[in-house]
UniProtKB/TrEMBL annotation:
Region of interest called Disordered, as start-end residue ranges on this chain: 80-108
Origin: domain of life: Bacteria
Name of the featured protein: Phage protein
Bias type Basic and acidic residues, positions: 80-91
Length: 108
């Protein structure tokens, strides 16, 4: 919808769907910004490790891996894929219709 000619060639239904899609995309962008702000706040959390007379503040998360373990997150996704493959037995031959039914009935 960058050009007026594109908009003029659309049906009213297409225009509304594109408008809704843009609004959803903007909400997703706002979500990401708010999530980033929340994570920034959490990353800067400190705790008092000193005494009352000599207070000393230290960050709760000493390094990035304490805050977010990237490798562990990747492993969890890989584990889900491995478990999914184990569930599908290669010995059992399913028809394309049965495969489609199984795929479409999965709850995500």
């Amino acid at each position: 919808m960058n050009r007026l000619a594109d908009v003029e060639q659309m049906t009213l239904t297409e225009f509304h769907y594109k408008r809704y899609a843009r609004e959803y995309k903007e909400i997703d962008e706002e979500y990401r910004m708010h999530k980033l702000a929340f994570l920034t706040r959490n990353a800067s959390v400190t705790e008092n490790t000193g005494t009352d007379k000599k207070p000393k503040e230290e960050y709760v998360f000493k390094n990035f891996k304490d805050f977010f373990d990237y490798e562990k997150a990747l492993e969890s996704v890989d584990q889900e894929i491995k478990e999914e493959k184990k569930k599908e037995s290669p010995n059992k031959k399913l028809s394309p219709a049965q495969l489609a039914l199984r795929h479409n009935s999965r709850k995500e």
